[in-house]
Amino acid sequence: MDLSAVLFDADGTIAETEDFHRISFNESFKEFGLNWYWDNAIYKELINVGGGKERIIYHINRAWPEMLEYKNLNKYITSILQTKNDIFSDYMKESKIKPRPGILRLLKELKEKNIRTGLVSSASQKNLTDLFINGLNVNPEDLFDVIAHGETTANKKPSPEIYEWVLENLKLPSSACLAIEDSPRGLESASKAKIKVLITPSKLMIDENFDDAITVLSDLGDENKPFELISGNSFGFKKVDYEFLNKVHGLQQNIKY
C-alpha cells in the first residue's frame, strides 16, 4: 500500500526537549522540599515510562515505597506535576530551542505532496502547546492533520492505543503509515500498532537497541548537514524527503510485537 501518512513523536523527535523536562522535574522537587534529583542516567531509564505522573509513581515505587501509604498521594503527585509543567513552560519561553534537523523541511514537503501528518506524543497537551507555541514559535495545528497527546487515550506508550487512535481518526490502515520516533518506547508503541518505524535517536537514546526499526538515522538531515546512517538502508540519500520515505515504507520490517 502507498504511503499516505507520516506520524511524528514530539519530545526527542521534533526537538531535543528531554533535558528541559528533566531539569523542570528537579526544580519542582526542590519547591516541594524533596531531596530527589534525576540525573541523566536516571532520566534515561524514566524516558521509557510514558507520562510525567507515571514517571513520578515509578520513582516512588523504586526509591520511596513508604510514600505509597500517603492518603492524598495522587493529589500530591498532581501538584508536583503541575509545578513541573509551569517551570517547563517558562523554560520554553526563555530558551532558544530549535527543531531537530530536517523536521520543518520534511513537514512542509509532506503537505505539498498531500501526505497526511500526525503528532503522536505521550506528553500532556499543555507541554505540547508550550513546546510548539512558546518554544518553536509555530502552531502545531498548522503542521499536523491530527494531534494525539497524553490525555487522548487511557494508556500511554509503549501501549499501541495512541497510534491506534490516530489510525482511526485518519481512517487509514497501519500499512499506509510510517512513524518517526526516537526511543524504544515509541518504537514498541508504533510497532504494536503494526506501523513501520524510522528512528532518529535523541541524545539520551543514542545507545539504545533499535534492532526492530526499519531504518535508524542520526536525524532527518538537511542540504548542508546530511544524516548519518546508523542501520538500515540509506538508498544513497543524504536527507529524508518524500521519495526517501516511500522507499523506506516499501521495506519489510520485522514487527515482533
Helical proportion, percent range: 40-55%
Instruction: Please tell me what the overall shape is.
Output: globular
**Helix- and strand-based class?**
alpha/beta
Query: Percent of residues in beta strands?
Result: 5-15%
* Radius of gyration computed on alpha carbons: 18 Å
Strand order within the widest beta sheet: 3-2-1-4-5-6-7
| Arithmetic mean pLDDT | 95
SSE pattern, N- to C-terminal: EHHHHHEHHEHEHEEEH
Per DSSP, the total helix count is 10
Total beta-strand segments: 7
* Span of the ends, CA to CA: 21 Å
Question: Oligomeric state of the chains?
Answer: single chain
Largest sheet: 7 strands, mixed
Uncertain stretches of 5 or more adjacent residues: none
Please describe what this structure looks like.
- The protein is of the alpha/beta class and 257 residues long.
- 42% of the residues lie in helices and 11% in strands.
- It contains 10 helices and 7 strands.
- The protein has helices at 18-31, 40-46, 52-63, 73-94, 103-112, 125-135, 140-143, 161-170, 184-192, 242-249; strands at residues 5-8, 116-120, 146-148, 177-181, 196-199, 215-217, 229-231.
- The protein has a 7-stranded mixed sheet with strand order 3-2-1-4-5-6-7, with helices on both faces.
- Helix 1 crosses helix 4 (73-94).
- The longest helix has 22 residues, at 73-94.
- The two termini are 21 Å apart.
Characterize this entry briefly:
This protein has helices at 18-31, 40-46, 52-63, 73-94, 103-112, 125-135, 140-143, 161-170, 184-192, 242-249; strands spanning 5-8, 116-120, 146-148, 177-181, 196-199, 215-217, 229-231. With 257 residues, the chain is of the alpha/beta class.
